[in-house]
Amino acid sequence: MKLKSTLLATALVVFATSTAAVFAADDAAAGKTEAAKTGEAAAPVKKKLKRHSHMTEKTGIPAPEAPSGKSHRESMPKDMPMHDHTQDRH
């Protein structure tokens, strides 16, 4: 039983030290980049992106335009019956 607890404690110590080393390296790298950015603008302004299709980027074929601002329920005919999934169960 002592062997299991000793191995567990050892594993936790190794994990904690490796995690601390990674965070320390990350903080050091962040400090270097922040020092370089102080000469530049403090906060970059976010630009509003236009809507785009990733398939258009991959294939080069323009995607069809999205339908009007209505949802599919608003554009459905009013007399169309709705399908009720709760009644389909056996």
Structural description of this entry:
The protein starts with a helix and ends in a 15-residue tail after the last helix. With 90 residues, it is mostly helical. The protein has three helices and no strands. The protein has helices spanning 2-37, 54-59, 72-75.
In short:
The chain has 90 residues and is mainly alpha-helical.
SSE arrangement:
Layout: H1 2-37, H2 54-59, H3 72-75
Observed structural traits:
single chain, 90 residues, mainly alpha, 3 helices, 0% strand, flat
Spatial gap, N to C terminus: 53 Å
Shape: flat
Helix amount, in percent?
A: 40-55%
Percentage of β-strand residues: under 5%
Number of helices: 3
Estimated structural class: mainly alpha
The overall pLDDT, averaged over residues, is 76
The major beta sheet can be summarized as: none
**Which sequence of SSEs, written as H and E, runs from N to C?**
HHH
CA radius of gyration = 29 Å
Q: Poorly predicted ranges (pLDDT <50, ≥5 residues)? A: none
Got a strand count? 0
